[in-house]
Amino acid sequence: MASWLTPLLREPARRFRLVNLRTGAVLAESVGAATDSETRRRGLLGRDAMPAGEALVIAPTNAIHTWFMRFDIDVAFVNRDGRVLKVRHKMPPWRMFAALRAFAAVEVPAGVLASSATVAGDALALERR
Fold first, then answer.
1. Contact 66, 99 (CB under 8 A)
2. pLDDT one-digit tens code per residue, 86-124
3. Nearest CA to 64 among 30, 41, 35, 39?
4. 27/55 Cα distance (integer angstroms)
5. How many CB atoms lie within 10 A of CB 63?
6. Residue 91: closest CA among 44, 53, 124
7. Measured between alpha carbons, how far apart are the two ends of the chain, in Å?
8. Interior/surface letters 100-109, b for 16+ CB within 10 angstroms, e for the rest
9. C-beta of residue 33 within 8 angstroms of C-beta of residue 3
10. What are 25-74's pLDDT values in tens digits?
11. How far apart are CA 100 and CA 10, in angstroms?
12. 3 has a pLDDT exceeding 90
């Protein structure tokens, strides 16, 4: 699964932050990965909220749902290079969202993508902390 996620996959114990390369905005200070069947199925289910400063990258996937979730999230679908293909702001529970050419979904607390001015075409990167 060589991609912009490679550093996170090679060093899962290391902490990474998620950055928008165009704006320099930090989207998250802590990035988790859901890259196997079990963690992709679980995602954010069972949580009461997504703490500020966190992100979850689900890969590989080109579609997500928020069934049974208890809070809104922002979602950015990205390609293998981390380029944002599609953005959804404040996605409420009980919805589906997809981007056919996507490699991964980046989930962050609602409002983060707007406050960081993240839009389709931006490149996201992982930086070691």
1. no
2. 999 999 999 999 999 999 999 999 999 999 999 999 999
3. 41
4. 8
5. 13
6. 44
7. 22
8. eebbbbbbbb
9. no
10. 999 999 998 887 776 666 666 678 889 999 999 999 999 999 999 999 99
11. 27
12. no
Residue of 55, 12, 68, 59 lying closest to 39 (CA atoms): 59
Residue-by-residue DSSP string for 13-43: TS-EEEEETTT--EEESEEEEE-SHHHHHHT
Whether the model clears a pTM of 0.90, i.e. scores above it, the answer is yes
Give percent of the chain above pLDDT 90.
Answer: 74
110 token code pair: 């609602």
The residue written with tokens 């990965």 in the block is 33
